[in-house]
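Q: My labmate handed me this sequence with no annotations at all. I'd like to see what the chain might look like in three dimensions before we decide whether it's worth expressing. Could you predict it?
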Amino acid sequence: MQIPIPSETSVLAFVLVLCRIGALMMIAPMLSSRSVPMRVKAIFAIVVSLIVMPMIDQPDNLASMEVGAIVVAMVKEILIGFAIGFAAAVVVFAWQIGGAILDLMTGFSFGGVVDPIYGNQSSLLQQLYAMLAGMIFVSVGGEQWLLAAIARSFEKFPIGNSVPYEDFAQLALTVVTTSFVVGLGVIAPIFIALLLTDIAFGLVARAAPQTQILQVEFPIKIVVGVSMLIVSLPLMVPLFVRTLNRMLGIAVGGG
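A: Here is what I predict for the chain of 255 residues:
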């Protein structure tokens, strides 16, 4: 029994597919976590690439491409993979931005801890929101959304074809605005409650300057913040799902 030898076109097509999926693995939420061994990431990328290969159209001109053209094609595939992974990762980063804002308001920013998922230096609520976003991502099947987005990207941007760079510019612009809008939207109830608490303590300090406000302000703000966090938890999942769906849609050209 002879083992079928893949053609040069199939090998080049596999390399291009692996470039796109490997770039996705480097930046996508949870998949890029430091807790996932590099070997597992590599095996996962190769397996997904092998699964995707029969589903895509392989251009006939791949075998006749020069080395420079192949390198350019690989860079384009890496850019597409990065774009899809970054579109999903920015949703988690937006939650971290919201947590960082709350840390400043509650005073938790004075103590920094190390984020065990991404290895960054972060404060308490920033880390909490990052872990919440990661758990929601897994619970709603975010990894399946990424696989669906990467499969759709091969229909929208076939391998070997030119990449519409204006889509990347649109994605970058949307990422900047979405990061802050989603970050503020996630913490909006807690932000308003803490702001009203600050105003109330400010009025008390104004009316009774001799009162030691700082001794009671921080504990009360922590209680108010944690209480509002628990109350607002049911609102977080729909917001996360809508944002993730929108960002992946923009990344694969769906708008």
